[in-house]
């Protein structure tokens, strides 16, 4: 009998695990609360240009992720850093040009957008194996199986893997049998990477910054954007800038943020900066599927990869996975892949 594995969450961790486990012959189902897969990978098409409102870069020191990309025939290209960068030190002075030192670690992007990884992985699923709009609210221990209840359905599985960020899991899903109190305490204090970030992207008709000898890189002590990069595509046919806004602006309206970005663009690039075709943003702090909102500060990466995540719960029927549970590169895409490989080995040893 094929073991039935239910995976909660259709981010990189959930989709990768579904792909791996299906390949090993397990019966899988992935339930995702949102109306899209990807979680913190969010490639949005805007004015026919793909912009990343979530994860963007990978690096040479991401061996597991690079292996996955290579096995899926996914191509990478270097983040464009050619040309001068701009730095705005003070409100009262114009941004200064400077050269970014050449010995920086190279960041790579994925041709077609980060979502390409998910596109390729999910191509192996049948319609029945991945369900959207299924927000899990409760998990009941039924001795030999687990019952997973969503807002509209319920599912029975031999084994469940949660890939919800641990802090969100213990604050949004109800467990009929008490979870280990040590686990709950650690999960509630596990930092979720980038949960407070505010990302923005601007699509342009032409890469006017390149014509001025600029790389599109901008840093600012003033804001609203604190850092910004060229975000044009590999083919160099679609042009964009992308960066991060000061997270204190999360409480303002979209109109206010765009107006302030517009003013800052004028300071950086003159009239050209203001001539964008579209403005996109994502306030991750507001996303209840990623961020459990409370006022407690948790140091970035705190408890990521804690040893407790190596345990199984609910009498050996639940594993808590997801990037933040990875002993290596917790919080990053590499962590999601590393932990996925680890869980695969654990389940192979257990069931095969
Ligand atoms: C703005 C930003 C920039 C980033 N930049 C980079 C980068 O450049 N490089 C890099 O390596 N990493 C980056 N990251 C981190 C990277 O995105 C994550 O490490 C990775 O995507 C995590 O995948 P995951 O599947 O573990 O978690 P998630 O992507 O958080 O997936 C969890 C999934 O669970 C779903 N879910 C939540 N609650 C429920 C529920 N109750 N029922 C069902 N489903 C539920 C969510 O909707 C989500 O789809 C960035 C993240 C952000 C937000």
TrEMBL record:
Annotated signal peptide: none
Coiled-coil boundaries: none
Residue span(s) of domain Amine oxidase: 88-341
Family of the protein in this entry: Belongs to the flavin monoamine oxidase family.
Annotated GO MF terms: oxidoreductase activity
InterPro entries from the UniProt entry: Amino_oxidase, FAD/NAD-bd_sf, Flavin_MAO
Name of this chain's protein: Amine oxidase family, flavin-containing protein
Record organism: Polaribacter glomeratus
